[in-house]
């Protein structure tokens, strides 16, 4: 009887503080998807702005419903080492309002919705590689299929208690493998199937709105604190606080490292470089921030900033058209951050696993990280390429060439992002029309 009382006293109880914290973190992660839309939307040409925004926003609608219907059950239910299952979670119809997530002090509903936000943003990340050339209907179907066939199984591998990567001891605090390598490898697989944009390496394809890019990067940076710190599902032991600090530190270091690389290589520090460097740091610290010290986070950020800055140019060398550098930033950044755990893990954070530079200087954790990284990369790349191939041969993935040249916004959405007509109804923009009118007045006066 005394033992039963002791066990009952030790059982986790619902924490209002942790529950409220996790709901806020969930909202922050959702904010990242519109932030990503702005980030990508500013990086494309004017004629593709709305399409880029919609490719992110449609993921919110599709993945939300799939996650409720079966996604959460398959990703986090108990099953095999490769996929889960819990019939009570289908449609979320048999979950008690105060039922706790096992081992934690938050309700199952809170854990479910937090993970839903991860599932939403991951396919949205892929969209940046496909800018300017993909049918919106084909993209929407791809999101549904990819979330089911690729994201859900990989999430189970990495984060479910019976997933093979989790049981192996692969460390992924918040998604270096499950989110960033997964999305980056998928992007590479799809673009190898659908091919290059018209004019790739010939026509200028510069960002049309760098302020929009910076706004998107700022929203991503802000939301990422929920993405990372929230992944500890509370902060009773300080690990979530460590992750929060490391997120800031690594992001700052990566931004400066990217700018330094740009200055040395190209002679200028660009706003696009600052935004991209920050995102590279956020990506790299995502898997590693709970395992490394703040000094380790600086090292992770610097290495990721330089590595990703160098990697974005590979598309021109190897001839694959990764429109907005998803492969160079997310896949490479995810690989760097995940593997550096094997070197910089202190053994004093989220677990006692130590990297090569700490503890007994063992390579054990590094080998585990390699297994997780390359298994996810290979599976996502191959499965995504197969999905893209099947869709391309049935529905067709690409818009016709004339629609791509004239503008995918108009052909796919019957809208344009900006109204360049003046108040007089002409095709000339307001400032240009005013300049022409002023020139005419000067000519008459002369």
TrEMBL record:
Any single GO CC term annotated in Swiss-Prot or TrEMBL for this entry: plasma membrane
One Pfam family, short name: Ammonium_transp
Localization in the cell: Cell membrane
Principal subcellular localization: membrane
Chain segments annotated as transmembrane: 20-40, 52-85, 105-126, 138-159, 179-198, 210-227, 239-261, 268-285, 291-314, 326-346, 366-391
UniProt xrefs under InterPro entries: Ammonium/urea_transptr, Ammonium_transpt, Ammonium_transpt_CS, NH4_transpt_AmtB-like_dom
Keywords from the UniProt entry: Ammonia transport, Cell membrane, Membrane, Transmembrane, Transmembrane helix, Transport
Protein topology in the membrane: Multi-pass membrane protein
A molecular function GO annotation: ammonium channel activity
Domain Ammonium transporter AmtB-like: 21-418
SUPFAM superfamilies: Ammonium transporter
PANTHER family, alphabetized: AMMONIUM TRANSPORTER MEP2
Assembly: Homotrimer.
Family: Belongs to the ammonia transporter channel (TC 1.A.11.2) family.
Task performed by this protein: Involved in the uptake of ammonium/ammonia (NH(4)(+)/NH(3)).
Protein name, entry field: Ammonium transporter
UniProt source species: Streptomyces seoulensis
Gene that produces this protein: amt
């Amino acid at each position: 009887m005394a033992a039963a009382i002791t066990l009952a006293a030790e059982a986790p109880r619902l924490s209002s503080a942790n529950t409220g914290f996790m709901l806020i973190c969930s909202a922050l992660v959702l904010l990242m998807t519109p932030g990503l839309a702005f980030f990508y939307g500013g990086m494309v040409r004017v004629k593709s702005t709305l399409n880029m925004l919609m490719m992110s926003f449609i993921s919110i609608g599709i993945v939300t419903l799939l996650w409720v219907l079966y996604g959460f059950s398959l990703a986090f239910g108990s099953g095999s080492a490769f996929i889960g299952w819990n019939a009570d979670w289908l449609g979320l119809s048999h979950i008690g309002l105060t039922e706790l997530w096992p081992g934690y002090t938050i309700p199952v509903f809170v854990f479910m919705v937090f993970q839903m936000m991860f599932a939403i943003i991951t396919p949205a990340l892929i969209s940046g590689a496909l800018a300017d050339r993909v049918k919106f209907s084909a993209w929407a179907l791809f999101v549904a299929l990819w979330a089911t066939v690729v994201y859900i199984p990989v999430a189970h591998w990495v984060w479910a208690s019976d997933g093979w990567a989790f049981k192996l001891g692969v460390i992924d605090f918040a998604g270096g493998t499950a989110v960033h390598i997964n999305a980056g490898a998928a992007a590479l697989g799809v673009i190898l199937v659908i091919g290059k944009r018209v004019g790739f390496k010939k026509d200028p394809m510069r960002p049309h709105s760098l302020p929009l890019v910076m706004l998107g990067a700022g929203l991503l940076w802000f939301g990422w604190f929920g993405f990372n710190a929230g992944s500890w599902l509370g902060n009773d032991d300080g690990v979530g606080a460590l992750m929060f600090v490391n997120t800031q530190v690594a992001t700052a270091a990566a931004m400066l490292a990217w700018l330094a690389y740009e200055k040395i290589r190209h002679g200028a520090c660009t706003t696009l470089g600052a935004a991209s460097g920050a995102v590279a740091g956020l990506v790299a610290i995502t898997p590693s921030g709970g395992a490394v010290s703040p000094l380790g986070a600086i090292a992770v950020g610097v290495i990721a900033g330089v590595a990703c800055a160098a990697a974005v140019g590979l598309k021109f060398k190897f001839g694959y058209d990764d429109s907005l550098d998803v492969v160079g930033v997310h896949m490479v950044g995810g690989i760097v951050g995940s593997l550096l755990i094997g070197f910089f893990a202190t053994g004093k954070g989220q677990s006692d696993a130590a990297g090569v530079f700490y503890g007994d200087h063992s390579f054990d954790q590094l080998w585990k990280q390699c297994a997780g990284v390359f298994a996810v990369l290979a599976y996502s790349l191959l499965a995504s390429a197969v999905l893209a191939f099947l869709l391309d041969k049935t529905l067709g993935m690409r818009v016709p060439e004339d629609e791509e040249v004239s503008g995918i916004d108009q052909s796919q959405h019957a809208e344009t992002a900006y109204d360049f007509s003046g108040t007089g109804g002409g095709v000339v923009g307001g400032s240009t029309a005013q300049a022409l009118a002023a020139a005419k007045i000067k000519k008459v006066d002369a």
